[in-house]
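Severity: low
Component: inverse-folding endpoint
Summary: output formatting inconsistent between runs
Steps to reproduce: submit the following structure tokens with default settings.
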């Protein structure tokens, strides 16, 4: 019997066919021809100055409030150096982005999870955790959360910033999926609700391509300066070639049409994922995201993600380890489904295999 072709519901990667390669070739040629020394020389660790200025204008802040780095994940690491001492408590949603957990732990932070609900973190649990642990930082992904796919409601956003103001907790808002909304109305960023309190991160890795490795931080100029010092001590200056290409591409007005193309590509993939779940696992508890890269499932009572992963692997369906997203345990029945890099046909096939794996484990 021939093996079924492998299907990967593992990491949240963009679709290869989404990359605007020709536009990037043209932008690269222009910046290297027009200002080769500025692009190829070392420079300030805050990022390629024209990109920093473009980001500031786009986001309605001063350039001194912006740092452009090699992707957004490393900004988390820089913030750990700049803001945390080993042993400091950091709150995250539970579940949360697994690589941030790795980063926080390797800096000696004690990570405490706040349960995530379909409309954002449980704010009563957040308040209790703040009172009990006196955390330095709350790391939160309010839009189309990785890994659950949840989006934080407006009411909870207001409560989060109110609590963090009241108890002097830094907020780190990680928003790489924010622009990828396929339905519904946008909620305000946490930063717009409390600009002095909230550090905001965005990234071009899901909008252009991971290969550009361009992410950015918006924050108070004093924090930006501290982070820039850590960045300088780490890599002198970030990858200006990528930042210059990104700047030229943005300056040419290519971001809005790219976002529309991404929505047109990904919305049917999300719909295919929902339909396949409704068809093959009608009793599954699935999140209902309106955008982003992820949908997640809570498996039926008594069915563990570890057993389902093994049963899925026998069907050449690869799943991420659901347990890794939970800072303090739990998640035994949690499955993340990143749908963007698969075609609707692959999604239907993959969810079908998942349903079979769940049936096998249920017995
Ligand atoms: C929530 C979240 N933050 C950060 C990142 C990393 O982004 P970057 O590629 O800009 O480092 C990801 C990537 O999957 C993510 O899901």
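Observed output (run 2 of 3):
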């Amino acid at each position: 019997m021939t093996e079924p072709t492998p299907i990967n519901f593992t990491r949240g990667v963009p679709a290869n066919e989404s990359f605007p390669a020709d536009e990037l070739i043209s932008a690269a040629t222009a910046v290297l021809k027009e200002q080769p020394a500025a692009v190829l020389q070392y420079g300030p660790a805050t990022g390629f100055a024209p990109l920093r200025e473009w980001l500031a204008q786009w986001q309605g802040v001063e350039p001194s409030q912006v740092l452009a780095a090699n992707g957004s994940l490393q900004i988390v690491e820089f913030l750990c150096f700049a803001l945390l001492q080993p042993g400091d408590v950091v709150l995250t949603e539970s579940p949360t982005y697994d690589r941030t957990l790795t980063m926080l732990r390797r800096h000696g932070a004690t990570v405490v999870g706040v349960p995530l609900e379909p409309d954002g973190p449980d704010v009563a649990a957040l308040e209790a955790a703040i009172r009990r642990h006196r955390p330095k930082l709350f790391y939160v992904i309010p839009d189309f959360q990785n890994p659950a796919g949840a989006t934080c409601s407006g009411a909870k956003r207001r409560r989060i910033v109110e609590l963090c103001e009241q108890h002097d907790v830094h907020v780190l808002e990680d928003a790489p999926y924010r622009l990828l909304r396929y339905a519904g109305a946008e909620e305000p960023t946490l930063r717009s609700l409390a600009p002095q309190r909230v550090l905001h991160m965005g990234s071009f890795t899901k909008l252009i391509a991971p290969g550009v490795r361009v992410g950015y931080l918006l924050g108070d100029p004093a924090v930006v300066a501290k982070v820039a010092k850590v960045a300088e001590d780490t890599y002198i200056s970030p990858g200006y070639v990528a930042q210059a290409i990104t700047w030229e591409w943005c300056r040419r007005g290519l971001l809005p049409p790219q976002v529309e193309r991404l929505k047109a590509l990904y919305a049917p993939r999300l719909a295919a994922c929902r339909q396949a779940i409704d068809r093959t696992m009608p009793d599954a508890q699935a999140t209902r995201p309106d955008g982003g890269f992820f949908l997640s499932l809570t498996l039926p009572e008594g069915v563990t993600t570890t057993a389902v992963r093994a049963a899925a692997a026998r069907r050449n369906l690869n799943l991420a380890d659901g347990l890794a997203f939970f800072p303090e345990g739990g998640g035994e029945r949690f499955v993340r489904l990143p749908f963007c890099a698969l075609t609707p046909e692959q999604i239907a096939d993959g969810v079908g295999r998942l349903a079979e794996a769940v049936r096998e484990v249920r017995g």
